Amino acid sequence: MNNASFSVIVPVFNVQDYVNKALDSIFAQDFADFEVIVVDDASTDDSAQKIEEYIARANDKRIKFIKCETNRGLSTAREEGLKFAENEWILFLDSDDWYSEGLFKKINEVIRNNPNINIIEFNFNFIDECMRREKAAYRDRGVSGVRKSAEENIMTALAVWNKCFKKSFLEILNLPPIPRSVLDDAPFTVCALLAAEYFYWLDFIGYSYIYRGSSLSKQSSMYFRVFNSVAFMEKELKRLKIYDETQFKVISLRLLSSNLRNCSDSLEYKNFYNECRKIFRSFDLKKGVKTPIIYNYKLYKRVRLYPCWLFKLRMKISQLPQRLMGKR
Predict the structure, then answer these.
(1) 116 and 247, same domain (yes or no)
(2) Are strands 89-92 and 6-12 parallel, antiparallel or unpaired?
(3) Residue 218 domain-assigned?
(4) Closest CA to 165 of 101, 92, 96, 112
(5) DSSP structural state of residue 216
(6) pLDDT level of residue 328 (50, 70, 90 thresholds)
(7) Residue 217 within a domain
(8) Which of 183, 212, 241 is where one domain is finished?
(9) Is the Cα dihedral 301, 306, 312, 313 positive or negative?
C-alpha cells in the first residue's frame, strides 16, 4: 500500500520569532510525501521576510507561500491555505507551535491500517510560558484505536491543530467560511467530529502547544465570540442533518463553561456572565441527562441561580483549597 500524502497549512501573523521553529519541525519529519502551505495574513512585523529567507535557504519545491493583502483572521487564513492543498490529508500547524519528530510516520501507519478513518487525533504537550510548565494534555485517553461514537468523539480537544483530516471528508462536509465573529477552532471541530463516521485516537505526543498570556486567543474580548459560535454550530449541524438537541445543549454548555472560567478577570465579565446565564436558563437540562459528554452540572446550576457577584464569590471559595496547597 502507498504512503499517505500530507498538506500542512501554516497560518502566520506576527510570529517572526517563532515561525522558523514551526517550519523546521515539519522538515525534520522522517517522511517525504508532504507539502507546506504558508499563509501570511498581512503580518506587520518581519514574518513574511523570515519566511522568504527560509524558503530561499531550503530551496524546496514542497513549500508554497501565499501572502494576504489584508488581515482577515486565523480561520480565513486556514481556508485560503486549503484552496491550494493538493494532497489527500490535511494538517494545520499554528506558526508559534511545532510538531514532534516521527509524527507523520505515526499518522501514515494509522492510515495504512484504517482506510475508513476520516480524522486522526494525537496527543500534545501543553507548554505554559508564563508558568514555565509543561505537561501532556491527556494522560487517561486510553490506548490508540478507532472511535465510533459521535459523542465520544466530541469529548476530545476542540482544536484543529492536533488533528489530521481526510481532504475528501472536508470537501463533503463543505462548511462555509467561518466569520471572524466566531471562534477559530471549536465550531469547525465540533461539526467535523460529529460528522465523522470513524476517527482514530493516536496515543502519541505529536504537537507542542504554547500558551502565551498575550496571545490573541487569550484576550478578554475574544470570549464573546463563543455566542456566535454556538449559533454557527446549531445552523451547520442542522444543515448536515446530524443535529441532536440534547447533545447540542451539552456541547454548548461545555464551551460556555470553559469561557466562564477563563474569562474570570475580564472587565467585561459581568456582561459575559449575564449572557451565559440567559442561555443556561433556556436549556433546562436535568442532572441525570443521558449523554457520555461530561459537563459541570454544579457550575451550570450555579449560573442559573446566582447573580454574577455571588457566582464569583463561590468560585473563589471553591478554589481556595487548591491555592493554599500551591495548585493552579
Answers:
(1) no
(2) parallel
(3) no
(4) 92
(5) G
(6) very low
(7) no
(8) 212
(9) negative
Which range of residues forms the domain containing residue 244?
A: 223-324
- Euclidean distance between CA atoms 29 and 5, whole angstroms: 13
Query: Quick check: 250 and 154 in contact, CB under 8 A?
Result: no
- Residue 239 pLDDT > 80, yes or no? yes
Among 73-77, 166-170, 262-266, the minimum mean pLDDT is found in 262-266
pLDDT band at 217 (very low <50, low <70, confident <90, very high): very low
* SS3 category, 241: coil
Q: How many domains does the chain have?
A: 2
Mean pLDDT computed over every residue of the chain: 89
Please determine, for residue 305, whether its predicted confidence score (pLDDT) is greater than 80.
yes
DSSP 3-state assignment of 35?
strand
Q: Which three cell numbers stand for residue 112?
A: 495504512
Whether 239 and 194 map to the same domain: the answer is no
Residue 149 burial (CB count, 10 A): 10
How far, in Å, CA of 262 to CA of 265, rounded?
Answer: 8
Q: Are residues 146 and 238 in the same domain?
A: no
Query: Average pLDDT of 144-152?
Result: 79
Whole-structure pTM value: 0.90
Flag whether 69 is in a domain.
yes
